[in-house]
């Protein structure tokens, strides 16, 4: 039987491969305009409207990632975290 450490590293490696694969798939779907966002769903006839639930604009990738008021708090947290990481890297 392999030592516990190698099992742990193997499990982490498999987890990371799956995680990176999921990220890669999501990225490709964004590039191909094949997402679950309402703009794409409307274009393919799956949704009755392309307008985001926030009512401000069409739910495009740009709107979802950068502008939607529903996700402003999450974007602010991400910006704060990235700023903290960058600041700590300077020291």
Blueprint (SSEs and pairs):
Elements: H1 4-31, H2 38-43, H3 61-67, H4 72-90
Q: What can you tell me about this protein's structure?
A:
The structure is a single chain. By secondary structure, the chain is mainly α. It folds into 2 domains: 1-32; 34-91, no CATH class. Helices cover 66% and strands 0% of the residues. It contains 4 helices and no strands. The chain has helices spanning 4-31, 38-43, 61-67, 72-90. The protein starts with a helix and ends with a helix. 8% of the residues are buried. The model is unreliable at 4-8 (pLDDT under 50).
Task: Give a quick set of tags describing it.
91 residues; mainly alpha; 0% strand
Q: Helical region count?
A: 4
Strands, total number: 0
**Unreliable runs:** 4-8
The best one-word shape is flat
Q: Taking all residues together, what is the mean pLDDT? A: 86
User: Helical content, roughly?
Assistant: 55-70%
Order of secondary-structure elements: HHHH
Terminal Cα separation, in Å? Answer: 44 Å
Instruction: Tell me what portion of residues adopts beta-strand conformation.
Output: under 5%
- What about the largest sheet? none
Query: How many domains make up the coordinates?
Result: 2
Radius of gyration: 19 Å
Structural class: mainly alpha
